[in-house]
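Lab notebook, bench 4. The sequencing result for the construct came back, and we need a structural model before the next group meeting so we can plan mutations. Quick request posted to the team channel:

Model the 3D structure of this chain.
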Amino acid sequence: MAEILPIRSWRYNQDLASRIDELTSPLFDVVSEKQRKSLYQNQFNSIHLSVPEAPEAATRASNLLREWKQTGIIQQDKLPGIYVYYQYFKLAGVAKEFCRKGFICHIRTYNWEEKVILRHENTIPKAVNDRIDLLEKTELHVSPTHGLYTDATHTLEKYMDEAVQYPLYETEDYQGVRDVLAVIQDAHVIQKFLDLMQEKTIILADGHHRYEGSLLYKQKKRRANPNHTGKEGYNYHLMFLTNTESDDLKILPTHRLIRNVADFDEQKIIKALEENFILKPVEDAATLNEIIVGKQWAFGLLFKDNAYKVRLKPESLTKLKWPFPKEVKELDLTVMHYFIIEKVLGIPGKEQRQSEKIDFDRSFSDCLKKVLQGDVQLAIITNEISIEEVKRVCHSGFTMPQKSTYFYPKVICGFLFSSVQEKEFKTPIFSPF
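Done. Here's the predicted structure in token form:
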């Protein structure tokens, strides 16, 4: 099953590490233009490696990386290790502080058909190409993707809990999350991590584009290497692994925003929905997200002047004609995209993934604001996806509708970097790994 390895990470030198909060950055697919401009002002911020400036962005990152290595801005750890990464966070309206526990390691890149690493979303080719170009030029994994394994016995948590008592870094990130990094370099303990993962399949939670980039990069390098052994650095990818059995693994909903639909008419939409949905007007639009919580196939519709709770009539599910298995058909988001977006709003399913009429927003308050200001015609408010639904879909061999999951919080970039350049990837001769 899943083969993992400890890593000899590259990290900022001791002087810079004392200001680690100034060097971290959001992941490439969530960092805003405003954040980028601000982070670029710091010449040593990790943004210069993860989202390098154009033109010739990947070449620029490669040159900068070489300079940082030569001048000691970043230095490679002498021993391989498993890096423990804890994220402490809160959610709106909840008093409890959550802690998502996990560890960062190298993992072998498996082709999708091997069914060792399972995806739940499809990728966008342009984003994958950007990641391949950067990986080819730098031979560096700048940030870990997020993978999920299942272990009801919580075997590894006791070792992680012990390690995190002696953190390498502790900082508060742009999300307001407290991030803590520690390292395990005890060979006996590391072997326990390797042994446990050999029994597991991994669900890719976040970072599909970066993983796909690693996969295509490996295939390209393998074709060019007549002496390929499977042990080269290009066969591996950087991943943050968390246990699906943790109560603190949170998936937040992603709402849909509709704009520029021709002949948009609220009353015609409501009338068309009555065939398959039970509708209820909601007087206070600001409570819509709370009203639908926990109800299967229930959605909130936010128009400029009105709000509605709509819930699919159970008998209508048989009308869903998309050729998906039961695990996908019964998802809230499949119901939404079929019955509301295709059948009522007239945006065909095959066009939805690339449609400029559909946008996405994780903030309910932002959705409400955009509707009231007239920036969008309609906001469709949805519930979060459960981890059990993610598991069922992944094991069915199919994928979810686009933007189905938002695992919160996002990991950050800058704590460590992982080289797959052959001389840097290899562990020291005295290491058992």
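The longest strand covers residues 98-108.
Will bring this to the meeting.
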